[in-house]
Amino acid sequence: MTKRFRSPTDTPLHVALTSGHTAVIPPEGIELAPAFHREAIARGAVLAEGATAEDQTQVFNRQLVIREAIEAMIAGQDKDDFTGDGKPNLVKLKAKTGFQVSREEADAVFAELTQQG
Questions:
Q1: Which of 25, 74, 82, 96 could be disulfide-bonded to 13 (CB atoms 3.0-4.6 Å)?
Q2: Nearest in space to 107 (alpha carbons), one of 77, 82, 78, 72
Q3: Looking at the DSSP assignment, which residues form a beta bridge with residue 6?
Q4: Element (H, E) at 57
Q5: What are the beta bridge partners of residue 47?
Q6: Average pLDDT in the chain
Q7: Three-state DSSP class for residue 3
Q8: At 83, phi and psi to the nearest 5?
Q9: Residue 45: is it exposed, middle or buried by C-beta count within 10 angstroms (0-12/13-18/19+)?
Q10: How far is it, in rounded angstroms, from Cα 32 to Cα 1?
């Protein structure tokens, strides 16, 4: 189901998926296919006017998605999910989350998870 997103500022947002697909979200808004929803919200896009109450409550929590993906990587114990120095493999993490994850984001969540254990 497509939803209408807009840039929260006068500057258009550029969204790129790990699949290679891209979109530009202008301030006036644009309909986006579901594949773009996560990354659009992660980049700061907001639902355009006219969104239903249900749409507004489906807030994407980037940190939660990263946390769940890293937890799954740890539980899976696949050596390819981690680099030689024991950090999460960003290529694998991006495939699991569906959006780009920076080294800093991944390391912060990974450190938090490994300190709890």
A1: 25
A2: 82
A3: 46
A4: helix 53-57
A5: 5
A6: 83
A7: strand
A8: -80, 175
A9: buried
A10: 9
Name the residue with tokens 């980049």: 43
Max Cα–Cα distance, the chain, nearest Å: 48
In the DSSP assignment, the letter for residue 117 is -
Q: Which of 31, 68, 75 is nearest to 51 (CA)?
A: 31
> Which tens digits make up the pLDDT trace of 48-92?
875 544 444 444 577 788 889 999 999 988 889 999 999 999 999
Exposed/middle/buried for 64, CB within 10 Å: 0-12, 13-18, 19+? exposed
AA letter at 1: M
Structure tokens at 12: 């258009």
Closest alpha carbon to 41 in 1, 6, 92, 68: 6
Among 115, 58, 91, residue whose Cα is nearest residue 47: 58
The answer to whether 18 and 94 are in contact (CB under 8 A) is yes
Q: Tokens for 89?
A: 């493999």
pTM: 0.53
